[in-house]
């Protein structure tokens, strides 16, 4: 009988000792750096890759009947040549896969959230295609142009809004005409005042509405858009910047101020992205000189370099 009592009294002590040893061993493991013989996979850079031609690439998810198309830019309805060839090109990143977008999966993940695009026509054209893709998952989508949006759509099935705010320079700018007498003297009809530290009215008060914001600017920063007869004049804190900036210097200063504003004023919860430029690829003239885009394949690297050099010369 005493031996049974002795063993029964030892059991809790052994259990307690085992738990203490287990805890002590766990703490030692947590303090030791974890090493693995398995090599971590290389990071996936979606921007490093190449265009691959594949005639078996699936057709676009939408057709010419999508109500969000811009009429003049509806290549499907306007029967642009070689659309089958154009749609056979696919971007393939180096060393990683890029799946085709699944509109239903995207809208489910973005349920009760809003996506905003701010910038020039590159963002607008992307938005139009994006809206048509998402409409496949929610045919009840309706046009949405609230909060100073240039265009957009609301997807009621998922309570998601996707919209575009037109702000080609990102910062605020306005036309200041000269009198006829002054214009005749130097040939300058007027100037566009650009406040480098003030966001455009089209987006300054709407950033808190969006959970994701995609910004871009670039194609309007050229002398084809603002020739010497109507140049940009840059202001900071309400006063002209001296010495005056040329258009590319102004672009750099605007970007610095807009990025600073976005980091400072846009809510931290908002996912903020910046979209890069695509090269100019008009054929037979510029956009305002009867140029057109007849290419049915991506630009080669030397063509892109030529385009960049040409933009710098202009």
UniProtKB/TrEMBL annotation:
Intracellular or extracellular location(s): Membrane
Domain of life: Eukaryota
Keywords of this entry: Membrane, Signal-anchor, Transmembrane, Transmembrane helix
Keyword Zinc in record: no
Trichome birefringence-like N-terminal domain boundaries: 43-96
GO cellular-component term (any): membrane
Listed name of the protein: PC-Esterase
Lineage: Eukaryota, Viridiplantae, Streptophyta, Embryophyta, Tracheophyta
């Amino acid at each position: 009988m005493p031996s049974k009592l002795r063993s029964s009294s030892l059991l809790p002590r052994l259990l307690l000792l085992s738990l203490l040893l287990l805890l002590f061993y766990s703490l030692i493991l947590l303090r030791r750096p974890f090493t693995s013989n398995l090599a971590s996979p290389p990071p996936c850079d979606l921007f490093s890759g190449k265009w691959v031609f594949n005639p078996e690439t699936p057709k676009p998810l939408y057709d010419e009947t999508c109500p969000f198309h811009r009429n003049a830019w509806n290549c499907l309805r306007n029967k642009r040549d070689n659309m089958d060839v154009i749609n056979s090109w696919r971007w393939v990143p180096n060393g990683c896969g890029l799946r085709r977008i699944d509109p239903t999966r995207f809208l489910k993940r973005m349920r009760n959230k809003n996506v905003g695009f701010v910038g020039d026509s590159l963002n607008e054209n992307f938005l139009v295609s994006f809206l048509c893709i998402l409409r496949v998952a929610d045919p009840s989508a309706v046009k949405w142009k609230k909060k100073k949006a240039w265009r957009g759509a609301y997807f009621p099935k998922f309570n998601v809004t996707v919209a575009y705010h037109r702000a080609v320079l990102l910062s605020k700018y306005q036309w200041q005409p000269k009198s006829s007498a002054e214009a005749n003297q130097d040939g300058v009809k007027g100037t566009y005042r650009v406040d480098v530290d003030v966001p455009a009215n089209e987006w300054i008060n709407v950033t808190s509405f969006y959970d994701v914001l995609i910004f871009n600017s670039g194609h309007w920063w050229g002398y084809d858009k603002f020739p010497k007869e109507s140049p940009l004049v840059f202001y900071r804190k309400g006063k002209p910047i001296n010495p005056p900036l040329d258009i590319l210097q102004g672009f750099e200063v605007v970007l610095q101020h807009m990025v600073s504003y976005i980091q400072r004023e846009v809510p931290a919860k908002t996912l903020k992205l910046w979209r890069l430029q695509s090269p100019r690829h008009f054929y037979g003239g510029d956009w305002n000189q009867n140029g057109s885009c007849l290419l049915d394949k991506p630009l080669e690297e030397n063509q892109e370099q030529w385009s960049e050099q040409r933009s710098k010369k202009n």
